[in-house]
Fold each of these.
Amino acid sequence: METITLHTTTREQMLDITSAIRELVSTRGWRDGALLLFCPHTTGALTVNEAADPDVARDMTVNMGRLVPRHGDYRHAEGNSDAHIKTSLFGPSLMLIVDGGEVRLGTWQGIYFCEWDGPRSRKLWAQWLAQ
């Protein structure tokens, strides 16, 4: 298992980690199989979405704030219930296909770490699943 360290700069942020994941696959010489990414934080998530236009990540972040507002009818004492809910909506893991040493994504797709309670230093766990 590999550990990837990330640093976010705002409370809510979709951080494009596509290059870091591709570099990890290349550096380790992984060829054909699957890569499991898992976020061990209850207020951080992972997703694949459009990376060609940064407005997509902005639109997702802004509208998640409208769907699940920061302040609401929450009882969790830490004051970050919205972040827990947003994380559950996105999910903590991704399974990515690696073919011929390349992470297989659609033309416009990128891999994002979704920060919902930052800024923070975060970890992702990457587990190689060989064919």
Note: The mean pLDDT is 97.
Amino acid sequence: MGASKINEDVVKAAKSQKSQFVKKTTSKSVLLGAAFLMATSAIGPGFLTQTTVFTQQLAASFAFVILISLLLDIVAQLNVWRIIAVSGLRGQEIANKVLPGLGVVLAVMIVIGGLAFNIGNVAGAGLGLNAMLGLDPIVGAVISALFAIFIFVIKEAGKAMDKVAQAAGGVMILLMMFVAIKTSPPVGDAIVNTFAPEQISWFAIVTLVGGTVGGYITFAGGHRLLDAGIKGVEYLPEVTKSSVMGIVVTGIMRIALFLAVLGVVTQGLAIDPANPPASVFQLAAGDIGFRMFGVIMWAAAITSVVGAAYTSVSFIRSFHPSIEKYHNWIIIAFIVVSTITFVFVGKPVNVLLLVGALNALILPVALGTLLVAAYKKEIVGSYKHPLWLTITGVLVVIIMSIMSVITLIQQLPQLFA
């Protein structure tokens, strides 16, 4: 009897240890997946073009822009991810608790912005397969959309999304670093200009921040963690690491592309204005470089398609039980609508301009709302938000608010020209 009891205890202990190991391993996988989902959502076709164009304009001084934008990105993500994790609520649910109806407004902004930009992401995926394999861009876009849809059809969609984001992110980083080394950039000049720039472009800084943590991207990782059940104060250290990791991955990509372009610029080679990033890769490594650009463009675009669809739909999941029940199918519909619009209409320039201006407003509205929520006990309980995060978060809200208004003023006349 005694021996039997001991054996039962041993078996129970072994099962408990195994359960804790599986739970810990799963948590690490999800945290890594959330970081890469955020990062790869930010690294889309626009990311590649913006980095190339600003490097052409600012040369080595763009290193300072990258540094400042990364610091602002980290502040924004640390605030957003922590408050989402502590409250256990999605962004729109938190906003509705701060001010009834605000969550609906935020959700509408996110969904409209995500849908419009997803048209560009689908187009980018088509162009990526065109450069990689020579496929017609429309055929490439349809194939890419089917690949993205497949991710959400399979049973473990969340895990599949994490794996795709990690694999695509790894491939992009390796290829980008190869091209950066190939162009032999003046690394010394870049390091000096990181801290003592010859020129400063605040517009470039704001554009980079908006493109990295603006719109739906702000919430991509935080919402993924909630869906995986990672929430509560006990997870804050891991959530913090994951949010910073996402920005670091984005930063590595940005730096590698910046160095690649800088190497081409300092050699006096002419970059094609029609497709700046593709031109850089071709100048750096010939036809192989152009094919590599296709791989990077496709990986950047397809992960942005997945991230935009997943995060945008996550903003309406709490509005009705049917949406929650069938959210994967709604994500698929989101991708289908984006693809059909690109195939039959093309890129609606005016809509993209309007949404670009709208997207610039989302970060200050979202971050400002969550900072208010961090001091409401009915939302975060006894949690005390770090003062330094609040102060730096408010600064980001002020800077982005001012610059987003300037962006609106600049872009609205173009819409009605």
Note: Residues 13-23 have pLDDT under 50 and may be disordered.
